[in-house]
Amino acid sequence: MGGKLGTLFARAGHEVVFSYARSDRKLKRLAREAKGKAWAGTPEDATREADALLLAVHWSRVDDVLKQAGDVSGKAIVSCSLPMNADDSGLVIAHTSSGAEALARKVRRAHVVSAFGTVPSEVLFSVYQGRRKAKRPSLVYCGDHQGAKDLAATLIRDVGFDPVDAGPLRIARYLEPFTLLVAQLAYEVEGGPELAYRFERFGK
Ligand SMILES: NC(=O)c1ccc[n+]([C@@H]2O[C@H](COP(=O)([O-])OP(=O)(O)OC[C@H]3O[C@@H](n4cnc5c(N)ncnc54)[C@H](OP(=O)(O)O)[C@@H]3O)[C@@H](O)[C@H]2O)c1
Fold first, then answer.
1. What is the 3-state secondary structure (H, E, C) of 11-66?
2. Residue 56 pLDDT > 80, yes or no?
3. Is there an atom of ligand 1 within 6 Å of 114 CB?
4. Rounded distance from Cα 81 to ligand 1 centre (Å)
């Protein structure tokens, strides 16, 4: 998710720092192939001057990456990370809270927005290619800080989706299980993982 979204953010004209992988070579390759204003760096480098941080790691890595990121006060943290168990078979937080809310409690001085986690990574480049089409797929997001949400909406639009503001961060309690439905349709049902969704109103 981080590699693909970072690449698309860079192609859309944003400055991007790719960070957090076991191999620096991978981060350098991502930066080179993104063909925009993109660099490889440490999580601390990524945090230093960024307006927004994309958190795209397995739930078990969140504490480690936050520790490496350093001071995230005032930053928008756009998270697509789901609170999955070790073998990715189920959510470890659900219904009465969400991964996004648990994250917000860890970084009280940052502004968490839950976004991008509701689509499989496999669809991202196709959505970007189709970004000038009249009918774009939806992408739901939620958060408690308007500035951070505005920033997330810009990134969502730049990747080619129609941002759908689902409200405060606690709505991630519904958004995260919804993602498992999308994953079921993407990976377990015929048709392949290049799947996105679109909400429409059918009243008059
Ligand atoms: N994949 C999807 O379609 C999708 C969709 C929705 C939400 N999500 C959520 O998004 C998050 C990221 O998923 P993903 O599929 O993008 O995961 P991923 O491909 O495994 O990427 C995770 C990143 O974390 C790095 N990493 C893992 N362990 C590390 C360690 N010990 N030290 C340093 N870096 C380490 C990986 O680097 P390496 O290259 O070294 O492995 C990689 O850069 C997860 O929370 C997932 O539930 C994923």
1. HCCCCEEECCCCCHHHHHHHHHHHCCCEEECCHHHHHHCCCEEEECCCHHHHHHHH
2. yes
3. no
4. 8
